[in-house]
Amino acid sequence: GKQKEDTNKVKLLNKLCTALSRSNSNDALIYGNEGKKLSEKLHWEKGSALINNSLSRYYFQISDYEQSMKLAKSALQYFTIKKDDNGMCLAYANIADALDHLGNYADALSNYFESYKIKEKAGLYEQLAPTAGNIGNVYYHLDNNADALKWYNIALKYCIKYKNENIAANTYSN
């Protein structure tokens, strides 16, 4: 009844937060905070973790990398306990993105590799291209062109296999 309706509202607020985090960050924050409050009111930990991952993207977009990492790490704790592969992959990627922008390339690589390994083990092959491309980017930042090229080629292999033209275009531009 009411609990199911409210968790569906949290899911919708989460989707809105995620979708708007790139284009209309103020609305993304409003929807994310509303979803977070409702999740906490419902004592729905998964909802809070989902919202934390989405708010992590919002804070990343406005260059608040510390807050982005804090929220992603909070989400990662929940998703690790629950062995939720999708949630863990996203949290690791969010942490890695923030670390990469902070110039902490070693830890960024470590988190991208965690995300990649989980996706591979879980059979989430269509999601491997962006992660491989991000690994290539970090190697590029480290002036390791051989490994950068290796990971860009891995990304392109998955782009071609799964017809992901947007990621392929990004990879070719690297």
Give the H and E element order: HHHHHHHHH
How far apart the termini lie comes to: 50 Å
Find the count of extended strands (DSSP E, 2+ residues). Answer: 0
**What are the segments in which pLDDT stays under 50 over at least 5 consecutive residues?**
none
Structural class: mainly alpha
- Roughly what percent helix? over 70%
User: How large is the count of helical segments?
Assistant: 9
Determine the oligomeric state from the structure. single chain
- Major β-sheet annotation: none
Radius of gyration: 17 Å
Mean pLDDT reading? 92
Silhouette? globular
Strand fraction band?
under 5%
Describe this structure in words.
The protein is mainly α. It has helices spanning 2-20, 25-42, 45-61, 65-81, 85-101, 105-121, 128-141, 145-161, 165-173. α8 packs antiparallel against α9. It is globular and about 55 Å long. The relative contact order is 0.08.
